[in-house]
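Honest question from a wet-lab person: if I give you the sequences of every part of a complex, can you actually get the arrangement of the whole thing, not just the pieces? Trying it with mine:
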Amino acid sequence: MMNSISSGEQHSNENRTDNFVEIRGLTFYRGSRAIFNNIDMDIPRGKVVGIMGPSGTGKTTLLRLIGRQLLPDRGSIVVDGQDLADLTRDQLFVQRRKMGMLFQSGALFTDLSVFENVAFPLRIHSQLSETMIRDIVLMKLHAVGLRGAWSLMPSELSGGMSRRVALARAIALDPEMVMYDEPFVGQDPIAMGVLVELVRKLNQALGITSIIVSHDLHETASIADVIYLIADGEVIGSGTPEEMLSSTDARVCQFMQGLPDGPVPFHFPADDYQSDLLSPGV
Amino acid sequence: MRIRTLEISVGAFMLAGMLALVLLAVKVSGLSLKAGGETYELNAYFDNIGALKPRSKISMAGVTIGKVKSVELDKETYMARVVMDIDQQIDNIPIDSTASIVTAGLLGEQYISISIGGDEAFLRDGERFEDTQSALIIEELIGKFLLGTVNKSE
Amino acid sequence: MKLDVLDRLAQLGQSGLGHVQSLGRSGIFLFLAIFSRAGFSGRGALLIRQLYNVGFLSLIIVSVSGLFIGMVLGLQGYSILIRYGSEGSVGQLVALSLVRELGPVVTALLFAGRAGSALTAEIGLMKATEQLSSMEMIGVDPLKRVIAPRFWAGVISMPLLAAIFSLVGILGGVIVGVDWLGIYEGSFWSGMQQSVDFVDDVGNGMVKSLVFGVVVTWIAVFQGYDAVPTSEGISRATTRTVVYSSLAVLGLDFILTAVMFGEL
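Yes, you can. This is the full assembly:
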C-alpha cells in the first residue's frame, strides 16, 4: 500500500521536470511559408518568460501551438510532462485546464456579463455550488481590481478593463500557467502599468508560470526572467533581459535597441532601386 | 426575469407554429379525424377518362363519398381502369349503378359521379361498375357539332 | 503559350479542389454539430435563447410577408379566374400555391436574409474577437456551445415559420377574396378543403421547409465559422450566406417538387 503510493509519487516526480513547457524541433508551415523552422524552447516552471520578436513572426501562433489549437508539422511540444500530440480530445481538455490564456482582444463573451464571463470556466469544469462560484468570481475580480464592475456587460468596459476581466477569467480555475498574447498593445501607460503589476503579482504570489508574447521591449524586459527572441522562424537569441541587452549579436542588438535598419532590413525585398526607377515599363 | 420573457416568447412562437399546422390540417386540408377511416375498393372501366387523376373526388347526389385511388390502362381491353376508395359506411351501392366522369363547371376539375341503379344487390369490395360513362371531351363535342353529327335526341 | 494553358489548367484544378475541400470541411462540420454530445448543463437555456433569436424575431417579417403574398394571390387569382366564371377556385389556388410552394420557399428566403445573415455575422464576429478560441482554451468545444444550439434552433424554427406563413397567407387570401371581392365563403373553403390533401400537400410542404431549414442554417453557421476573421471577411461571409442559401433553396425546391409532385 505504502509502496504503491510512494512509487506513484516517484513516477510523477520523474515527469515533473524543471520546465513546464519543452519545445523540441518545432516546425510549422502556413501554406508553403515556414513560420517556425526547427526551434527549441524551454519555459521554466514558475518563471516569467518573454517571447519577443518583430511583428508577423508568428508569436501568437506559438501560443496556439502550446494550447494545441494548432498542430505542428514536425517536432514535439511537451506541457507538464505530457506530449500534446499523444492526447485524446478529452485528455486535451484536462490539459488545457492547466493553462489560462489571455487573448489580445480580451475575447470576453459578449453575450455574458462580467460576472458570468469569469464564472464561465467554473460552471463548465466544476460542480461548485452557486455561492462558492460567486465567492470565487468576486475574489478573482478583486485580484484584478474590478470587483465593482461585476454587473457590467463587456461592451461597457474600456480596453484595459476588459483585458483585466479576461485575466480574471483566465485564472478562474487556478491554472499553472498563463499565456499572455500581446497584453500591452494599445494600452495607455496607466493600464499598461497595472497589467505589468498584475502579471508580476500573479507570478510571485501564486507561482504561476507565465509566457508573455509581446514586442513591447521595455515592459517585457522589466518583468521577464528569460527572454526568447524570434525572427524569421528561428530563435535568434535567448537569456536574461540583461544578457540580451548586452548581446553582441547584430540581429539581437537591432531589436533590443530598436534600430530601424540592420540585419532585419527596413526595406521589403525589392529589385534594384535605380533600375526600378529608370525602367520605362511597369 | 429576462429569462422568463425569453422563454415565454419562445413558447408563444412554438405554440403559434403548431397551431398554424393544426389549422392547416383541419381548416385548409379538411382533415377530420373520421377521414382516413375504413374504405373499400371498387373498379370501373372507361373508354376515356379525360383529366381524371388520383385523388379526384367521387360523389353521389353531390356528396363526396370517396376518392380515386389509381388510374391505369388495361392492356387487354385498351380501356382505362379506375380504382376507387369508397367510404365503408356507403355500402349499399346497387350493382347496376352508373359511374360517369363529369366536370365541375365549364373548365373545372373532373370527378366521378355515381347515379344510383335499382337493383337489390349491392357492390362489394373489388367489384366493378358495369355501366360507365366516359369523360366529355370538349374538342370532340365541338367537332361533332360543327359537322352536324350531334344526335339531337341525345 | 503552352505553359500558359497548362498553368490555367492547374489553376482551375486547384480552385476545383479548393471547392471540394471546402464542401468536405462543411460536411464534417455539419456532422460534428449534429452529433456532438452537449456535455454541459444549461444547453436547454442556450437553445431557448437561439430559438428566440432565430425563430421569434423572424415572426414579424414572416407573417407580414405571408399576409401580403396571400392577398396578392387572392387578387391575381380572382382577376384571372373570374374570366372563366370559376372564382370559387380562388381558395384552392391560394391554399395550394402557399402550402406547396410559396410557404416553404419564401419563408426560407426570408429566413436566410433575416436569421441566416445574423447567424453568420454573429459567429464570424465571435471568431474575429477570439471568443471561439478562448472558449476552446477554457476547454469548451465551440461546436457544442455556439454552433449546435444555433443549428438546432434554425432546424426547429423553419417548419414552424413556414406553417405560420402559409396560414397567414391563406387568411390574406380570405380577406381579399371573401371580404373584399365577395367570393361566396362556402365555395372558397370547400374548394380549398377538397383540393388540399394533408399528407400530400401540407405534409410535403413541411418536409420541404424542414430540408430548407437544415440547408439554410447549415450554410449560415458554417460560413460564420469559416469566415476570414476580419471585417471584410465577415461581410463577405454574410453575403455568401444569403446568396448560397437562396440558390440552394430554389434549386432544392425544384428537385423536391419533382420528386414529390412530379408523377402526377
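Two things worth pointing out. Chain C has nine helices and no strands. The interface with chain A takes residues 40-42, 125-126, 129-131, 133-140 of chain C (CB under 8 Å).
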